[in-house]
């Protein structure tokens, strides 16, 4: 069993984007988040999102590209990135409508799933898939 000293806590989800302030503003209006801060360099933004911070940074940056490699985008419209962003809402239909009305690309309208969750999908302004679902209670 791991000791508390090495027990992880998920601190950030970092989304690589084309325009940091524009993506932060989009997530604020489309998904209902409050922008916590935008760094004066315009290369970092954070949303108020609970225990784990959602952050935005440019796709290409000198600080990390040489160390960890460049961010790879899907090669065609029929492909998508390897990560999906998921948000829970009490009213998925209303949240989906707000997202689409504020520039999200409709992918799949909300529908009831066999496991008890209502789920819809949209694309953000950078092509990332955002899953909008109801919370499944045990």
Automatic annotation (TrEMBL):
Q: Spell out the InterPro entries in the cross-references.
A: Glyas_Bleomycin-R_OHBP_Dase, Glyas_Fos-R_dOase_dom, GlyoxalaseI/FosfomycinResist, VOC_core
Extract the Pfam families matched here: Glyoxalase
All copies of domain VOC, residue ranges? 9-135
What is the designated name of this protein? VOC domain-containing protein
What species was this sequence derived from? Leersia perrieri
Lineage, broadest ranks: Eukaryota, Viridiplantae, Streptophyta, Embryophyta, Tracheophyta
